[in-house]
Amino acid sequence: MLTEKIRTDFPVFTRKINGNRLVYLDNSATSQCPKKVIDELSDYYLYHRANVHRGVHTLSEESTDMYEAARKVTARFLNVKNTEVAFVKNATEGANLIAFSFLPANLKKGDTILVSKYEHHSNILPWVESAKLLGLNVKQIPFTKGYAIDYERLSKMDFTFLAVNQVSNFLGSVNDISKIADVCHKKGAYLFVDGAQGIPHLPSNVTNLGCDFYTFSGHKIYAPFGTGALYIKDSLVSKTPPFMFGGGMIKSVTLESGDYLNEIEKFDAGTPNIGGAIALASALKYFESIGKKAIFSNEEKVLHYLYSQLSSQKDIQVYGPTKAEKRVGLVSFNLKGVHSHDLASILDSEGVAVRSGQHCTMPAHKGLGLVASVRASIGLYNFQDDIDALMEGINIARKVLK
Ligand SMILES: Cc1ncc(COP(=O)(O)O)c(C=O)c1O
């Protein structure tokens, strides 16, 4: 069972923020890094640093082994093959890679892409921009009056590619990826999943999810910035051309053209973020060492408490699914009559870090008629005491701002 002791793994919790203990509830924006992960990153840079795949000397071989071992750890975490995992700098790059390499090679003018109105901008804009270049149509995934996908209407639609989040970073709602995959594959359509908010809160067994592409950012799961992965289903790796060109991804080069690797390494153009990949694997191993079950069951309790505390207040409007069981990781809300930035500033003065604004989901905010919202999002080091501190902070804001 997880206890507050886990916070000792994260030096940031020794800090005082405006004289208070740090209550970090901005995990959907980014999580904190355990010291162990930073130590492994530092060990790599201090004792093993060398370029990969190019040298026969000891350091280069060590570096290559560590980099490829990191790919294996990432693949194991997702329950997919090593040959299906490309390293990317974040989920945004994962989406752009597919939008500007797979789509041009496999979709044709007039084909339709579906995206949902509850996506992060990073899972809207790559498709919209690629569609402009390729002459594709972009349409909306149909939703029920609630926040669930309308499968009946979806199965009647004509489309070739669908991009959706596993978990919404604004509503916390969870999409049933296996069910969406069934609908897509019956039509011969491809499914891209943005796992940025799913990876830290759900068992992201990508083989079981059945999607064709899945991407996530390392920094949302306790790894450093600039790290992440993109899963490409085995049978689609050869159908996805390289996204960038340069050293490290070629078979042969002339001044007129290049012959490129067919395998997943074709996405490693230039010197990759070797230390980052190693640190990503270190964070995933740290996560596994605590145990996915223990993390998810603690988060479920904390989220339930967060949701019930916020939704029981008459002057707080909570957005998204009305039952805590249908969401993971976060609750977005507003204190009536108070701008989200004002509330977030007062909370900060009490040591409570939350996000305010539109969380890169402008269409979703607009759709609900909102200018902005406050988002409290949890991680593996959050417990009931953090939610109590948030609620105390909101009480103080009421006195100051209302
Ligand atoms: C659902 C979702 N998708 C994509 C992203 C983009 O992640 P990154 O900025 O790490 O590329 C985020 C970041 O908040 C997100 O929440």
Label this structure with key terms.
402 residues; alpha/beta; binds pyridoxal-5'-phosphate; four-stranded antiparallel sheet; seven-stranded mixed sheet
Q: What can you see in these coordinates?
A:
- It is a single chain.
- With 402 residues, the protein is an alpha/beta fold.
- The chain has 13 helices and 17 strands.
- A 7-stranded mixed sheet has the order 4-10-9-8-7-5-6, with helices on both faces. The chain has a 4-stranded antiparallel sheet with strand order 13-14-17-16, with helices on one face. A two-stranded antiparallel sheet has the order 1-2.
- α3 (91-106) packs parallel to α4 (125-134).
- The mean pLDDT is 96.
- The structure holds pyridoxal-5'-phosphate.
- The site of pyridoxal-5'-phosphate has 13 residues, from α3.
- Pyridoxal-5'-phosphate is lined by residues 28, 90-92, 120, 122-123, 165, 169, 194, 196-197, 217.
TL;DR of this structure?
The protein has 402 residues and is of the alpha/beta class. It has helices spanning 35-47, 58-78, 91-106, 125-134, 151-156, 177-186, 206-209, 234-237, 274-290, 292-311, 340-349, 362-367, 384-401, and strands spanning 16-17, 20-21, 23-24, 85-87, 112-115, 137-140, 161-165, 190-194, 213-217, 228-232, 250-253, 258-260, 316-319, 330-335, 352-353, 355-357, 373-377.
